[in-house]
Amino acid sequence: MSAAGSRSKIRRLCVVLGDQLDAGNPALKAVDPEVDLIWLCEAGDEATQVPSHKARIVLFLSAMRHFAEGLRKRGQPVRYLALDQHPHPSLRTALEADLETLRPERVCVTQPGEYRVLQDLRQACEAHATPLEILDDDHFLCSSEDFAGWARGRKSLRLEHFYRWMRKREDVLMADGEPVGGAWNFDKSNRKPFGKQGPGLLPEPLGFAPDATTRAVMALVEQRFPDAPGSLDALDWPVTGEQAELALADFIDHRLAAFGPFQDAMWTGEPYLYHARLSAALNLKLLDPRRVITAAVAAYDDQRAPVASVEGFVRQILGWREYVRGIYWQEMPGYLGRNALDAHLPLPDLYWTADTDAACLRAALGQVIEYGYGHHIQRLMVTGLFALLLGVAPAALHR
Questions:
Q1: 82 neighbors 42 (Cβ within 8 angstroms)
Q2: How many whole angstroms separate alpha carbon 215 and alpha carbon 117?
Q3: Is 126 exposed, middle or buried (0-12, 13-18, 19+ CB in 10 A)?
């Protein structure tokens, strides 16, 4: 569990959160093995703060364990608190206990992705009078400060305006100051249905059979969280940076070209279609967004994918992903309580069971239970829109 037993004095306790599994994590860039200690913790309440799919819990824990092992192999000092090897119910209580015993001079962490976690870290350090250094998360292309600068003075914060600004700033799909292909987006070309014949033969996305580490985590999750929703039968997500790179290459080579026209399409019994299946790897930081964007643009440059498909995909990464993060940190903590339409109904049980006569809802929710996955149109236009029309409280749907 620990690499701290032989240390008389720790300069920095470098906290690495479960969604910061990047060797280039700013908190790791200046680690001195002689005086610093890298700290990772599997916290039980992170799986129960909101009802979490079993596959999501396994993905986090397995990716964390693989990442920690990679650090150890590179000679880095790691203290790893595995879920079944410590008594602490939360990240905060685990950190407080180690601050008491390890007494580091300071704690450093890359900016968390969630406001609640940031507050927990601050409170733990304040309780033990330990300075907390929060580093900018350079995994994202647009910092919170840059987003705030872009937003300042604007009457409305529209994705399209932000996306164009980012395209210009990062020089992505641009030629002589103009968008490649003569348009900023190609939505009109990217809304094709499959028709009555269906999608036909689809390229099977690359999956990764659980290794010994993942299988051990699966057994732990089944034992520790038996009532968590979902199934682990189809678990095949990448859990390392190497696997994430293979998944990216598989998407670029076999599905990107058709992603554009069919990105908004759905078909019963086909959970993935031409989608990338890279969001989880990106959000765990197993995969850098710059790498993803560069690979997609290269496919256009090499005439392996049309501009409409490449632009539609790049917009998800350079546009939506950066935009949503910017809005989140711009508006938190009040953002969680917003309810502009004064909607207050509870979330129907069918969201947990898929037991409904509504075919679209049954298909979309059923596949989430089975695979832990739903693509953006299923979330937006099926599960999200139904809740909106029904009048479900936004916080209930968010959970």
A1: yes
A2: 28
A3: exposed
Report how far apart the first and last C-alpha atoms of the chain are (Å, whole number).
32
Contacts of 162 (CB under 8 A, 6+ apart): 147, 150, 319, 322, 323, 326
**Closest by CA position to 312, among listed 376, 242, 234, 226:** 376
β partners of residue 36 = 12
| Distance from the Cα of residue 112 to its chain's centroid | 12
Q: What angle do CA 207, 211, 215 make, to 5 degrees?
A: 105
Q: What percent of the chain has pLDDT over 70?
A: 98
Instruction: Evaluate whether 379 touches 321 at the Cβ level (below 8 Å).
Output: no
Residue by residue, DSSP assigns 255-296 as THHHHHHHTT---TT-S-TT----HHHHHTTSS-HHHHHHHH
The structure tokens 């935009």 sit at 323
| Beta-carbon contacts of residue 248 (< 8 Å; ≥ 6 apart) | 276, 278, 281, 287, 291, 292, 295
**Amino acid 8: pLDDT:** 66
Give one word for 284, left, alpha or beta, with left for phi > 0 and alpha for psi -120 to 50: alpha
Distance CA 191, CA 272 (A): 16
Q: What is the pLDDT of residue 169?
A: 97
Q: Full-prediction pTM beyond 0.90?
A: yes
Q: Are 163 and 293 in contact (CB under 8 A)?
A: no
Tens digit of each residue's pLDDT (9 = 90 or more) over 2-50: 565 555 689 999 999 999 999 899 999 989 999 999 999 999 999 898 8
